Amino acid sequence: MINDRHSQTSRVDQYTSGPMLYSLLFLSCLMLLGVAALPPPLKTIPSTHPSVYLHGRWDDNVGSWWAGTGFKLNIVTLHNLYINLGEHTTQPSAAVAVSIDGGPYFSVNFTEFSNTVPLGDSILKKDTKAATLVEINVQGWQNNRIEFKSVSVNADASFIPYKPKGRVFQSVGDSLSAGQYLPLGVNQAWPYLVARKLKVESKINAQPGATFIDMESYGNAHGVSYQFWKTEDTGYIWQQDHNYTTAWDVRKEQPKTTDLVIHIGANDASHGVPQEEFIETYLTFLEKLKQASPALQNVYILTPFGWPHEGGVVDYYYEGVYAKVVEEWKRKVGPRSSLRTHLVDCTGWIAFEDVFPDNIHPNVQGHQTIADKLVKVVSAK
Ligand SMILES: *[C@@H]1O[C@H](CO)[C@@H](O)[C@H](O)[C@H]1NC(C)=O
Ligand SMILES: *[C@@H]1O[C@H](CO)[C@@H](O)[C@H](O)[C@H]1NC(C)=O
């Protein structure tokens, strides 16, 4: 024991008595280890920083809910980007869609801790003073929780706050708006495509299987007319760490909704919800949203795309009901209101080749078809 200690001490003495040799040794060690031994310095800002533009529904913990919730960043001299997430992130991962400088979305699985965002080669060719726009949204209507803690970038990069567009589309719907079954989820769904094409901001609250009236339906504890006013989507019921909802205050949203787009009713119809009850729910929802949205200018009420089958047959539901909603709503709002309500007749918009044959939900092409037609309608109004 004693001898060992003594020999250790004498070794240390040797080093201290030869500082020159020691530093040479240290330097060559570093050279052998290469650059990897020195991680590049990073700059980190919290997700609550004003330079992070959050959109969609986030809880108090900056945890995401609802398909399409995400954030935008504008960064100058960007070379490395890491998104740091906390433990309340879907395990093992949550799929997000990433777009760089408005380019096509691609999918990345985000996990707890640090996630490297692939920026592509175009970033290298950029003028070092030019800002890079990074858009990241959760894809899924389930397994869509990211607890967004912070953003890290190369230390010489700088953040410029993203300036949101003035026109803001709020979509409300079910699986046909949430992008269920699509490879990139909601990012390939028509509400998102329309917003991108029209260069407007987008908010989407769409829940597969959910009715509009407030009832239990296909795994959803509530209907969309209820859940819309909550931070959490109906998936909260399956979360051990967050098995509750919190109120969402639409009045506090920035930027404010200017256009409301609703396509809903497939699940109400499948449960046999009577038209009168459906219409009542619709009108109550519109009234509540109008009260909470002082910037609202247009309401688009879409009739069903329907369920297309082989041979040109398309099953529709609630025929004539949406026209009734529009009629009654216009009467309620009155002719002097600046709010404009449009009935969008989607009959014949999609055919069998526009849907997945096994679940008859729109496929990638089907969503594009719907988006193109709706863009035309909106641009003509
Ligand atoms: C993400 O994870 C899912 C499930 O494990 C997998 O099917 C998918 O291919 C992954 N996506 C990417 C982009 O790695
Ligand atoms: C969430 O709470 C409900 C009761 O409100 C319960 O039925 C359900 O099993 C809970 N879910 C989880 C994942 O704990």
From TrEMBL:
SUPFAM superfamilies in the record: SGNH hydrolase (SSF52266)
InterPro entries tied to this protein: PCW_deacetylase/CE (IPR052762), SGNH_hydro (IPR013830), SGNH_hydro_sf (IPR036514)
Record-linked Pfam families: Lipase_GDSL_2
Superkingdom, taxonomy of origin: Eukaryota
Alphabetical keyword list: Membrane, Transmembrane, Transmembrane helix
Residue ranges of every copy of the SGNH hydrolase-type esterase domain listed in the record: 172-368
Entries under Gene3D superfamilies matching the protein: Galactose-binding domain-like, SGNH hydrolase
Transmembrane residue ranges: 21-42
Protein name: SGNH hydrolase-type esterase domain-containing protein
Species name: Ephemerocybe angulata
